[in-house]
Amino acid sequence: MTRTRPLTTDATRLSAISRLFSPGVFRELAKYGQSGLFARLAHRAGLPQAPQAEVTVGDAFDAAFALLRQSGIRNEYVYRAALTHNVLLGTHSLKTASLLTEFRVGSCKADLAILNGTGTVYEIKSDRDSLARLDNQIANYRRVFAKIYVIAGDSHVEEIMERTPSDIGVMALVRWDRIQTVREAADRPDLVCPVTICQSLRTAEAHALLRNLQIAVPAVPNTQMHAALKDCFARLDPAQVHQEMVRTLKKSRNLAPLSDLVDRLPVSLQPAALSIQIRRADHAQLLNAIETPLHIAMSWA
Amino acid sequence: MYYPYFRGKQFELITIRETAKLMAASGFVPIIEPVKEGLSGLERTLKAICEADGNAIVIVNPHKGDLAGDGGDISALLTGSFLDKDGITAGILLTGNMSVADALACYKEHEDHSPSFIHAGFTEAKALAEELQDKPTHIFFEAYTGKMYWRHFRECERILLRDGFKRRRNADYPVSEKFSDLHLTYEDENMDGFGDFLIVGDDYSESGGPAYAIAIHLTYIDPDREDVMFIYHFVSTSNDTPTDPAGKFAEALKKLITKLDTGDSNLFEGDAIKEFRDLHAKGHFPGLGSVKKLSMKHHIETLANYLG
User: Fold this and answer.
1) pTM of the prediction?
2) Which residue in A70, A222, B195, B221 has the most C-beta neighbors within 10 A?
3) How many other C-beta atoms can be found within 10 angstroms of the C-beta atom of residue A293?
4) CB-nearest partner of B250 from A107, A199, A223
5) Contact residues of A toward B, CB < 8 A
6) Alpha-carbon distance A21 to A271, whole Å?
7) What is the pLDDT of residues B8-43, one digit of tens each?
């Protein structure tokens, strides 16, 4: 790789570009309709500052994202974006599929899971991530999701193929936005653990799941509910619980209300909108901020 | 007397409303720093204080939260609804980034609300004292001030705020520890009153992830240790995952009830303890905010009982 700038300058720029897509910037834009953090990072990122009014904050995000995914530091956001666009919005849609981020699974949190007919979890291992926790993550994911994929950068793919069982799917992010399936994941709802699923769900979701199975919700005070639900789930069939979990979560974590917002955001910010919660009342403000001419946004403080 | 300092979040405001009568009867003066954008909760709280014939100091230039740096709405609320209520006065928070001119301008602006100064990082004590014509009340954050600082305001009414609460991860609290002796010693410091940040502490945070452990913090006066105030931390036992807060609350509550039933807890048994016993009997978890509210209420009841 040839460098035209000194390493530190480059590293500072890239880290600023990468941080533009952090939840902090997105939340500030939604909450206040502007973001001092955006302006500071955009300066440090050295984004081209066209004085024309037609270049907007949204354009700047798209330009930054183009740099980010070509750079040597493709971070988790690039992978998340590839999954969002290729799998969630590509194969499925917000009307038929749901997306979970940071979903608690046993002692881990799943990076991203997509629910359509079945439940599929994706573990992201960018080139900068270590594989140290992978075995434990897979062991936990098995307890909740029927299908497991590890999506990784080139440098990891071979090792992941070797160290993971053959029913674990492996994907590679080739070039910067194409996902190549190296190994298909097996669909094994029979291997999940109903008690772990129970602990991943909110109480109201666990209740809904039981009702769908025509099982009475335990009649106990709320301090005893969790233990009672665990007992209840322990007696259920794994595949059936998995199927009902997918059905319940697709309703309770439905993303269809976000369709309108997602459609109106620049492509580079769509993954953020699907994983960072903001108030519905702030949607218009966020869109306004995104449409602000960049030269004005650069003086946000 | 006693000046509890509240960052005016939802459950802090509810605590003030529920203890308004007790605080008024005890001569306690809550200091309220509004931190949330919506001021309707604050307005209801101030009304409750007025109905109880109590006093409160409302900070008109908050430093933390949504309203930091912009207290115009608070000033408008005070002028609009509470100008004729003598019990509600303005507090001016003096932080490190303020000049003497800023402080005096804010003082002038709120003159009609008998403002007091709350010193929290301000560095121009001497100059301010020289410029001030009046003798307003001065309230000091102990962490930011000291004897040299206080002496500039010797001729005024002075209140000292000490944060007795040492924040840790919930799982790391000792069973009990010293909280404060300021209720016994403030006069030795030549102060006219004292205050604290209740069982919340002076570290403001708006967020909080799911808790791995749940803690109930309750203060008590220990007669065997010269009436110094101590604090119990009743912490849940199964703290490996962030799941089941209700079950964890039950564990912490069980420890509290067991301690109470030994008869030598030294905990003051007022309304708050009654509510904890009631929750225990029902097996009900009212939510983390309500638990904090009960602990704050208990702290106020404890001091009202001791000082009353």
Assistant:
1) 0.82
2) B195
3) 16
4) A223
5) 104, 107, 199, 220-227
6) 10
7) 889 999 999 999 999 999 999 999 999 877 789 999
